Amino acid sequence: MRRQFIVPAESCARSAAEARRTVLRDLHDGVGPSLAAVALGLRSARQLLTTDPAGAARLLALLEDEMHSAIGDIKALVANESPSSVTRLGLAGAVQQFVAALRSRLHVTIDVVVLGDLPPLPDAVSVAAYRIIREALTNVVTHADARTCQVRLWFDSELHVEVVDDGVGTAEVSNGVGLASMRQRAGELGGTCRVEPGRDGGTRLAAAIPLR
Predict the structure, then answer these.
(1) pLDDT in tens, 190-207
(2) Residue 195 to residues 95, 108, 113, 164: CA-CA distances in angstroms?
(3) Which pLDDT score, from 0 to 100, does residue 20 have?
(4) Reported pTM
Protein backbone atom coordinates (compact mmCIF):
# COMPACT_ATOMS: atom_id res chain seq x y z
CA MET A 1 0.00 0.00 0.00
CA ARG A 2 1.38 3.34 -1.04
CA ARG A 3 1.42 6.00 1.65
CA GLN A 4 1.21 9.69 0.94
CA PHE A 5 2.69 12.30 3.22
CA ILE A 6 1.34 15.81 2.98
CA VAL A 7 3.57 18.58 4.26
CA PRO A 8 1.61 21.73 5.17
CA ALA A 9 2.40 24.71 2.99
CA GLU A 10 3.22 26.83 6.02
CA SER A 11 5.86 24.28 7.09
CA CYS A 12 7.50 24.47 3.67
CA ALA A 13 7.46 28.25 3.84
CA ARG A 14 9.07 28.23 7.29
CA SER A 15 11.75 25.79 6.10
CA ALA A 16 12.51 27.91 3.05
CA ALA A 17 12.70 31.08 5.16
CA GLU A 18 15.04 29.39 7.64
CA ALA A 19 17.25 28.15 4.79
CA ARG A 20 17.45 31.69 3.39
CA ARG A 21 18.36 33.08 6.81
CA THR A 22 21.11 30.48 7.17
CA VAL A 23 22.59 31.31 3.77
CA LEU A 24 22.44 35.06 4.45
CA ARG A 25 24.08 34.60 7.85
CA ASP A 26 26.86 32.49 6.36
CA LEU A 27 27.45 35.09 3.65
CA HIS A 28 27.52 37.87 6.26
CA ASP A 29 29.85 36.04 8.66
CA GLY A 30 31.97 34.18 6.14
CA VAL A 31 32.41 36.15 2.93
CA GLY A 32 31.68 39.55 4.49
CA PRO A 33 34.86 39.72 6.62
CA SER A 34 36.96 38.47 3.71
CA LEU A 35 35.68 41.21 1.43
CA ALA A 36 36.09 43.80 4.19
CA ALA A 37 39.74 42.78 4.56
CA VAL A 38 40.25 43.03 0.80
CA ALA A 39 38.66 46.49 0.76
CA LEU A 40 41.07 47.62 3.48
CA GLY A 41 43.94 46.19 1.46
CA LEU A 42 42.87 48.03 -1.67
CA ARG A 43 42.82 51.27 0.28
CA SER A 44 46.36 50.59 1.51
CA ALA A 45 47.53 49.66 -1.99
CA ARG A 46 46.12 52.90 -3.38
CA GLN A 47 48.03 54.86 -0.74
CA LEU A 48 51.24 53.01 -1.61
CA LEU A 49 51.06 53.57 -5.37
CA THR A 50 52.91 56.88 -5.31
CA THR A 51 55.34 56.20 -2.46
CA ASP A 52 56.10 52.49 -2.84
CA PRO A 53 54.94 51.00 -6.18
CA ALA A 54 56.72 47.72 -5.49
CA GLY A 55 55.00 47.41 -2.12
CA ALA A 56 51.67 48.19 -3.76
CA ALA A 57 52.30 45.44 -6.31
CA ARG A 58 53.09 42.90 -3.56
CA LEU A 59 49.95 43.86 -1.66
CA LEU A 60 47.81 43.58 -4.80
CA ALA A 61 49.19 40.09 -5.42
CA LEU A 62 48.23 39.15 -1.86
CA LEU A 63 44.76 40.58 -2.35
CA GLU A 64 44.35 38.51 -5.49
CA ASP A 65 45.09 35.37 -3.45
CA GLU A 66 42.59 36.48 -0.83
CA MET A 67 39.91 36.98 -3.46
CA HIS A 68 40.52 33.44 -4.70
CA SER A 69 40.19 32.25 -1.10
CA ALA A 70 36.88 34.13 -0.76
CA ILE A 71 35.65 32.47 -3.94
CA GLY A 72 36.64 29.14 -2.39
CA ASP A 73 34.64 30.01 0.72
CA ILE A 74 31.59 30.74 -1.43
CA LYS A 75 31.96 27.37 -3.14
CA ALA A 76 32.32 25.69 0.25
CA LEU A 77 29.19 27.48 1.44
CA VAL A 78 27.26 26.22 -1.57
CA ALA A 79 28.57 22.69 -0.93
CA ASN A 80 27.86 23.01 2.83
CA GLU A 81 31.51 22.42 3.71
CA SER A 82 33.93 24.03 6.16
CA PRO A 83 35.93 27.11 5.04
CA SER A 84 39.08 26.00 3.25
CA SER A 85 41.42 27.74 5.70
CA VAL A 86 39.86 25.93 8.69
CA THR A 87 40.08 22.60 6.88
CA ARG A 88 43.74 23.13 5.97
CA LEU A 89 45.09 24.92 9.03
CA GLY A 90 42.76 24.15 11.92
CA LEU A 91 41.06 26.81 14.00
CA ALA A 92 44.14 28.52 15.45
CA GLY A 93 45.99 28.47 12.13
CA ALA A 94 43.03 29.88 10.22
CA VAL A 95 42.65 32.70 12.75
CA GLN A 96 46.38 33.46 12.52
CA GLN A 97 46.12 33.63 8.72
CA PHE A 98 43.18 36.06 8.84
CA VAL A 99 44.91 38.23 11.43
CA ALA A 100 48.12 38.28 9.36
CA ALA A 101 46.12 39.61 6.41
CA LEU A 102 44.66 42.39 8.57
CA ARG A 103 48.06 43.29 10.05
CA SER A 104 49.50 43.93 6.60
CA ARG A 105 47.16 46.84 5.96
CA LEU A 106 46.08 48.31 9.31
CA HIS A 107 47.48 50.39 12.12
CA VAL A 108 45.87 48.08 14.68
CA THR A 109 48.11 45.69 16.59
CA ILE A 110 46.32 42.32 16.71
CA ASP A 111 47.76 39.40 18.68
CA VAL A 112 46.53 35.82 18.79
CA VAL A 113 47.19 33.88 22.00
CA VAL A 114 46.43 30.17 22.40
CA LEU A 115 46.50 29.26 26.09
CA GLY A 116 47.53 25.62 26.45
CA ASP A 117 46.77 22.91 23.90
CA LEU A 118 43.44 22.78 22.11
CA PRO A 119 41.96 19.29 21.75
CA PRO A 120 40.72 18.00 18.39
CA LEU A 121 37.63 20.07 17.69
CA PRO A 122 34.48 18.98 15.87
CA ASP A 123 34.12 20.73 12.53
CA ALA A 124 30.96 22.53 13.65
CA VAL A 125 32.74 23.98 16.70
CA SER A 126 35.81 25.07 14.70
CA VAL A 127 33.69 26.76 12.04
CA ALA A 128 31.44 28.51 14.58
CA ALA A 129 34.43 29.81 16.56
CA TYR A 130 36.19 30.94 13.36
CA ARG A 131 33.11 32.81 12.13
CA ILE A 132 32.64 34.48 15.52
CA ILE A 133 36.28 35.62 15.66
CA ARG A 134 36.26 36.96 12.11
CA GLU A 135 33.05 38.90 12.70
CA ALA A 136 34.42 40.30 15.96
CA LEU A 137 37.68 41.39 14.31
CA THR A 138 35.78 42.94 11.40
CA ASN A 139 33.81 45.00 13.93
CA VAL A 140 37.05 46.03 15.64
CA VAL A 141 38.75 47.27 12.48
CA THR A 142 35.58 48.84 11.04
CA HIS A 143 33.96 50.49 14.06
CA ALA A 144 36.14 50.43 17.17
CA ASP A 145 38.90 52.91 16.27
CA ALA A 146 41.16 50.63 18.32
CA ARG A 147 44.95 50.62 18.58
CA THR A 148 45.34 47.12 19.99
CA CYS A 149 43.31 43.93 19.99
CA GLN A 150 43.96 40.47 21.37
CA VAL A 151 42.33 37.17 20.42
CA ARG A 152 42.57 34.44 23.06
CA LEU A 153 41.66 30.77 22.67
CA TRP A 154 41.67 28.15 25.41
CA PHE A 155 39.91 24.99 26.48
CA ASP A 156 38.78 23.71 29.85
CA SER A 157 35.49 21.86 29.62
CA GLU A 158 34.49 24.12 26.69
CA LEU A 159 36.23 26.01 23.92
CA HIS A 160 36.61 29.62 25.01
CA VAL A 161 37.01 32.54 22.61
CA GLU A 162 37.84 36.05 23.76
CA VAL A 163 38.40 39.15 21.61
CA VAL A 164 39.40 42.28 23.54
CA ASP A 165 40.15 45.72 22.07
CA ASP A 166 40.90 49.19 23.43
CA GLY A 167 38.52 51.02 21.11
CA VAL A 168 35.52 53.26 21.60
CA GLY A 169 33.12 50.75 23.16
CA THR A 170 30.17 48.51 22.40
CA ALA A 171 27.57 50.84 20.85
CA GLU A 172 28.19 49.96 17.19
CA VAL A 173 28.53 46.21 17.59
CA SER A 174 25.60 45.96 20.02
CA ASN A 175 23.23 47.34 17.40
CA GLY A 176 24.48 45.31 14.45
CA VAL A 177 23.44 42.14 12.67
CA GLY A 178 26.79 40.58 13.52
CA LEU A 179 26.17 40.25 17.27
CA ALA A 180 22.90 38.40 16.75
CA SER A 181 24.63 36.09 14.30
CA MET A 182 27.51 35.40 16.70
CA ARG A 183 25.09 34.62 19.51
CA GLN A 184 23.09 32.34 17.25
CA ARG A 185 26.17 30.42 16.12
CA ALA A 186 27.23 29.77 19.69
CA GLY A 187 23.70 29.02 20.85
CA GLU A 188 23.09 26.43 18.14
CA LEU A 189 25.91 24.38 19.67
CA GLY A 190 24.74 24.85 23.25
CA GLY A 191 27.16 27.70 23.94
CA THR A 192 27.03 31.37 24.80
CA CYS A 193 28.37 34.59 23.32
CA ARG A 194 28.27 38.03 24.88
CA VAL A 195 29.72 41.45 24.21
CA GLU A 196 30.47 43.79 27.09
CA PRO A 197 32.65 46.77 28.00
CA GLY A 198 36.29 45.90 28.59
CA ARG A 199 37.90 46.35 32.00
CA ASP A 200 40.00 49.28 30.80
CA GLY A 201 37.64 50.58 28.14
CA GLY A 202 37.03 49.19 24.71
CA THR A 203 35.04 46.02 24.09
CA ARG A 204 35.29 42.41 25.19
CA LEU A 205 33.64 39.57 23.29
CA ALA A 206 33.51 36.26 25.15
CA ALA A 207 32.14 33.01 23.71
CA ALA A 208 32.08 29.51 25.20
CA ILE A 209 31.20 26.50 23.04
CA PRO A 210 30.91 22.94 24.34
CA LEU A 211 32.31 20.11 22.23
CA ARG A 212 29.32 17.81 22.47
Answers:
(1) 999 999 988 878 899 999
(2) 19, 20, 19, 10
(3) 56
(4) 0.66
Contacts of 203 (CB under 8 A, 6+ apart): 140, 144, 164, 165, 167, 169, 170, 173, 195, 196, 197
> In whole angstroms, what is the distance from residue 124 CA to residue 46 CA?
38
Q: Pseudo-torsion of CA 33, 37, 43, 49, nearest 10°?
A: -160
Q: In the Cβ-directed half-sphere of 36, how many Cα atoms lie within 13 Å?
A: 21
What DSSP letter does each residue of 118-157 carry, written as one string? PPP--HHHHHHHHHHHHHHHHHIIIII--SEEEEEEEESS
190 phi, psi to nearest 5 deg: 80, 15
Are 177 and 168 a contacting pair, CB within 8 Å?
no
Structural domains of the chain in order of their starting residue, each with its CATH number:
9-209 (3.30.565.10)
